[in-house]
């Protein structure tokens, strides 16, 4: 994929003139100068608690939270996404990582059958700007909306204001949008996910993270269905959640299809990376980035993963 130039970055009208260059810098950093997002999702310690970090099939190194930062430091990622406190604890030792602060999170203890999901802000923008002023390399913010929840209007209002305020200060914003709640019968319906992508555009997000759609009949491939969401998202880049850990070739094949068939603008991967050993996880970030940033095909990306191609990326 040809690298983009600074003048090719579409700067939203809600970015204040004095922060226009900051926004371009942050967009270029998050996409590693490619226009595609390689988001390393490290927000699951609240979302899924310890289940994603210790247990059968998970490398023991993942039980130490620093493992994620070691991967982000040694691998090739666009941004490492995590909560403010997590980043604050480790960023001083890993100053070169681009950080995206996840502004809301909830555990999975309360099930939808008990209560519709609601994930309000955990902290205000000022605390993030203070961290940035103190030298933490924060390039953006993230926020989750559960469309279909009875609380969706509250989350959309928070997200809308957050995006306006973040843009005004030169930060990019990624929305996680998942249809979920008692009113939602099929969370991965293709039209519903396309609708979620359109909501992200209307709220002004720079990127939106969605679940890959599924055909209930199992006939139409997920990447084909994803085209609807990629079209609906317009100038908001669309990326897919990585999901549970699978073997590297399967994951890389799915990613290639999402980008080249479905029209995705990158990826958002967490468990498939950090549940592996440090060496394997670092190699996988490079293979993922080879596809996301450099348009490698699956076989070429497997060469990167297996160490036959020493992939590097210069912004």
Give a written overview of the molecule:
There is one protein chain. The chain has 315 residues and is an alpha/beta fold. The chain has one domain: TIM Barrel. Helix content is 39%, strand content 13%. It has an eight-stranded parallel β-sheet. Helix 7 runs parallel beside helix 8 and helix 9 packs antiparallel against helix 12. The protein starts with 19 loop residues before the first helix and ends in a 10-residue tail after the last helix. The mean pLDDT is 97.
Quote the CATH topology: TIM Barrel
By DSSP, the count of extended strands is 8
Cα gyration radius (Å) = 18 Å
Distance between the termini: 13 Å
Q: Name the CATH superfamily assignment.
A: Aldolase class I
Uncertain ranges:
none
User: What is the CATH architecture annotation?
Assistant: Alpha-Beta Barrel
In helices, the fraction of residues equals: 25-40%
Enumerate how many helices there are, as a single number.
Answer: 12
Describe the main β-sheet briefly: 8 strands, parallel
Shape, principal axes of CA atoms:
globular
Share in β-strands: 5-15%
Strands in their spatial order, largest beta sheet = 7-6-5-4-3-2-1-8
